[in-house]
Amino acid sequence: MNTWIFSFIVVMNLIAAKVILFNEEFLVFLAFSTFIYITWEKLKTDAKNYFEKKRFNKQQIFVALLNSSCKQTEAQLKFNRKMNQLNITFFNLKNHYLNLNNDFFFKSMERHKTTNNINIRNKIKFFIKLEKGNGRMIFPILVKKSNKITHTNLFFKKKTSIIQFQTLNRVSLHECIKAV
């Protein structure tokens, strides 16, 4: 209230000294200033409370958004860690699978080599036995057949006088000589 009295005295002195003209415009200015001052004094606490509530609400919203963002970030970090662990697990699984395949492949190749070697040895032994056993039997048969062929050729060579048979005989003799 002291400011009111002081302001009123200052304004009256300025009017008396004719520094400020006392006319309609000054009266409108004075009425408006008084209205603003009185309104401010009466509504100052209400405005302060209103803006304080707004600030508090904005602060609560900001804190809630910050907490939500922190929770989302933590969830994303947990998810990223799980994905990283899953990636490591898949990598280990791939390595294990490759090692298993390599072991299986090499062991199957070793088994295949040994079984093939055994099979080849057995077949060679079988053919050797077959050769020894059947060679004694087949060789005399082949000698008999070759003797018959030779005797037949000699027969046609000596006994036939037909020119066509002699030509065939010579061709067959030539082939026999080439084969031997």
Description of the molecule:
- The chain is mainly α and 180 residues long.
- The chain has one domain.
- Helix content is 93%, strand content 0%.
- It is built from three helices and no strands.
- It starts with a helix and ends with a helix.
- The mean pLDDT is 78.
> What's the shape?
rod-shaped
Please write the string of helix (H) and strand (E) elements.
Answer: HHH
Question: Which range best describes the helical content: under 10%, 10-25%, 25-40%, 40-55%, 55-70% or over 70%?
Answer: over 70%
* Number of E-state strands: 0
Beta fraction = under 5%
Unreliable runs: none
Largest sheet: none
The secondary-structure class comes to mainly alpha
Measured between the Cα atoms of the first and last residue, the distance is 149 Å
Q: What is the total domain count?
A: 1
What is the radius of gyration computed over CA atoms, rounded to a whole number of angstroms?
Answer: 63 Å
Count up the helices. 3
Q: Mean pLDDT, nearest integer?
A: 78
Question: What distinguishing features does this structure have?
Answer:
single chain; 180 residues; mainly alpha; 3 helices; rod-shaped
Q: In a nutshell, what does this entry contain?
A:
With 180 residues, this protein is an all-alpha fold. 93% of the residues lie in helices and 0% in strands.
Chain-wise SSE layout:
Blueprint: H1 2-16, H2 24-159, H3 163-179
